[in-house]
Every structure is written in C-alpha cells, then in structure tokens.
C-alpha cells in the first residue's frame, strides 16, 4: 500500500466540497476556518494538484477535485460500513399492544426478552386503537379478536380469554366469600370497557341473578385490576393477566366460575414484514413466553 494522504486532510477536503465554503466546513468539523484551509492547502501540496478554485465568496471544484472527491467520499463510506459491521446497531421493532397487555403481561417479562435478544430494540406502543401496519410503522401487534384480521396479515393464537373474578384476600376476609346472591351484593363490582359482568353473573348464578349495590367503572382492565388489588371490589380479567397477582397473594379467586370470551389474543404481523428476521424472533419469543417456555 502506497503512502496515503492525511485522513484529517481528506476529511476537511470532503466536507469543504459539500459546502464549497471553508467557514461552513469548519462549523461542521468544529475546528477553525483557518485549520480547514490549511488542511486543504497541505493536501493540494502533497498531491501537486489544485483541488479548488478560490473565489471571492465561495469555492469551486477543479476538474481534478471533482474526480478525486467521488472516490474519497466512497472510501469514507466503506470505512463507515466496515465500522458499523463491527458494531451493529440494534434492530428496531415496534409492537402495538393494549395498555393492559403492556402493563400486566409484557412489561414484567421485558428483562427476559432483552436477555434473549440483546440485538433487538423493542419499541412498545400501548393503545386501544387498532394499529395500521402501513401508516403507523408498526411491525407486529397483539390484538384482541378473531381472525382473519385483514388481507396480507398472519395471525397466531397467543392466549385464549378465560375471564375470572378476582379480589383482594383482605376484602374477602372482611366481607365473606361471595358464593351467593346475598353475599355477592356486599361487593362493589369493578367494570371495564369489555362489560363482562352481566354474562359472568348469569353463568355463575343461573338460578338467581344477584342485585349489586355498587358499580365502579374504568376504561382500562388494568385499572380495574389495580382497584381490586387495593381492596375496592371484585374485578373481572383474563386469567393470564392476573396469574402473577394470584401466585403472589395480592389477589384471590373467590368465585370459581370461568367465562370463555368470544375473542382471544393473537399476535399479528404482515406476511411480508419489513424486517423478517427480528419480527420472526419476537413472534417466537411471544409464543414461548405465553406457553411458559421462557425464563
């Protein structure tokens, strides 16, 4: 390999060709204007060629300068590409989920995901609004419903919805087990936007529909669950949302009835995703985590 010009001089030259102004080039490089001019003069002296025509308020590339800068710029691009290959950037994947799914299931498991896939930068968008894969830059989503979800989309079942009633063990101890219409009437019912209580009570007490003295309504299931943990009443939720709270003793299931909902949770993504490998990795991790096969 022959002797190369100074890389600093080549960088000053390349930046100056884009601005055609030493002052602006100096601002980009965060050096003085004089330093840029000196680097370029030194490069011209070493090459024995004039690279710029100095004009009153601007610079103009000479024919030699125009030919040279194209190769110099490509050389810097190759260096940048080689460096990026040594230190690859994380792969950014955006997943759309409901706020309750995010707070009660996904977020507690993020350390497991990060440990399994340190090369994937998972971006979580929590919203009840149905995400659009084309306009919202979403790579995959966890959606509540029934397939098909739309043309060109792939959907895999993540969780079947098993709706259970939960309450704080302290509240159950205080009010007694809600095992009949009279005892249930002592409990405030915590509702969410899904409004499962009428169907659940009909299933749990088929012979006599209980009369409830107090109803408290929330727009998010996660809020109803937190209210139940705080001892404010009975909430209904998908079993997988409250399993950890039941295991830890924060919640109990005072009524054994399980309601099968008409819609379930699916992981959905385009059949031809923009980033196939990381999307496949996230889908696989979600499936394994839902089946209890991770961490």
Automatic annotation (TrEMBL):
Q: Which CDD domains match?
A: PBP2_GcdR_TrpI_HvrB_AmpR_like
> What are the GO BP annotations of this UniProt entry?
DNA-templated transcription
Q: Name one Pfam family in it.
A: LysR_substrate
Top-level taxonomic group: Bacteria
Q: Which residues form the HTH lysR-type domain?
A: 5-62
- Give GO MF terms, alphabetically: DNA-binding transcription factor activity; sequence-specific DNA binding
KW DNA-binding (keyword) present:
yes
Residue ranges that the Swiss-Prot or TrEMBL entry lists as coiled coil? none
Keywords recorded for this protein, A-Z: DNA-binding, Transcription, Transcription regulation
Gene3D superfamilies named in the record: Periplasmic binding protein-like II (3.40.190.10), Winged helix-like DNA-binding domain superfamily/Winged helix DNA-binding domain (1.10.10.10)
InterPro entries, alphabetically? LysR-type_TF_proteobact-type, LysR_HTH_N, LysR_subst-bd, WH-like_DNA-bd_sf, WH_DNA-bd_sf
NCBIfam families attached to this UniProt entry: PRK11139.1 (NF008352)
Family to which this protein belongs: Belongs to the LysR transcriptional regulatory family.
Write the protein's name.
LysR family transcriptional regulator
The protein's organism comes out as Rhizobium loti (Mesorhizobium loti)
